[in-house]
């Protein structure tokens, strides 16, 4: 989003009328050695009305919530493709935010309860083709050690269950799984051999806390015979990432 003069731009997402206003910005929030990157500051306005124009519908329940916990995020594209970043607004609609070339980065001001997804920049259909921070839907949170910004790496997403192989990195993560469905959820972890291990049967409306590690993969089903799946934080799998939170949360919901 840099201008032809080399100056950086600030992108404001105006929720009231669906328009986007561009203004010059000299504060990229980046380190001096990031000067070759396309750094963009994005601010979401708090107003919204019914005439907000949808940019693509996302699963029910997936939407931005609050404006009380700002966080700066550095999105780094390691996907091998140019990607389009989407912010999910307050009514669950996709808002086109910005594109990032492979190997480049963007520094963004957003909020903790605001979800983001990434898709192929050359594909007009919004799809979960890439992960952000190892998951299909990214919720910005600072890391356990703080810093100027959270780093969110964008990579090509697994396409099928056979692509999920856990590679625990030794970083322990305490995760609270919360079943928001009306049926039991069978929680499974994929081990380093790629085999599924049933870890817990979580009844409807209940929660379960466990200690796991980063770089592990979790899936959940509603029926062990049909293998019909449920969503974990709005993705078909979940991979824990340690943040500033004492306990990470993973919400189990239905497909729609």
UniProtKB/TrEMBL annotation:
InterPro entries: VHL_beta_dom (IPR024053), VHL_beta_dom_sf (IPR037140), VHL_sf (IPR036208), VHL_tumour_suppress_b/a_dom (IPR022772)
Domain of life per record: Eukaryota
Regions of compositional bias (Low complexity) in chain numbering: 25-39
Pfam families hit by this protein: VHL
UniProt-annotated stretches for the region Disordered: 1-56
Residues of the von Hippel-Lindau disease tumour suppressor beta domain: 62-123
Annotated Polar residues bias: 1-13, 40-55
Family of the protein in this entry: Belongs to the VHL family.
Descriptive protein name: von Hippel-Lindau disease tumour suppressor beta domain-containing protein
Species whose genome carries this gene: Clytia hemisphaerica
């Amino acid at each position: 989003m840099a201008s032809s003069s080399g100056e950086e731009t600030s992108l404001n997402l105006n929720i009231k009328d669906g328009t986007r206003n561009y203004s010059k910005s000299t504060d990229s929030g980046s380190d001096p050695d990031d000067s070759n990157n396309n750094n963009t500051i994005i601010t979401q306005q708090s107003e919204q009305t019914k005439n907000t124009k949808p940019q693509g519908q996302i699963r029910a329940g997936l939407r931005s919530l609050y404006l009380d916990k700002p966080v700066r995020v550095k999105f780094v594209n390691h996907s091998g493709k140019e990607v389009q970043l989407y912010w999910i607004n307050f009514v669950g609609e996709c808002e086109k935010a910005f594109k990032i070339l492979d190997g480049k980065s963007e520094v963004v001001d957003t909020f903790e309860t605001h979800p983001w997804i990434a898709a192929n920049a050359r594909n007009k259909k919004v799809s979960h083709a890439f992960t952000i921070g190892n998951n299909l839907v990214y919720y910005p949170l600072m890391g356990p050690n703080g810093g100027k910004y959270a780093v969110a790496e964008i990579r090509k997403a697994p396409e099928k269950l056979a692509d999920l192989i856990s590679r625990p990195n030794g970083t322990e993560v305490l995760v609270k799984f919360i079943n928001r469905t009306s049926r039991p959820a069978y929680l499974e972890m994929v081990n380093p051999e790629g085999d599924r291990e049933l870890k817990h049967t979580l009844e409807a409306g209940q929660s379960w806390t466990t200690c796991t590690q980063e770089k592990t993969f979790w899936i959940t089903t509603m029926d062990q015979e049909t293998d019909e799946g449920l969503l974990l934080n709005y993705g078909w799998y979940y991979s824990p990432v340690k943040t500033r939170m004492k306990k990470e949360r993973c919400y189990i919901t239905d497909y729609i």
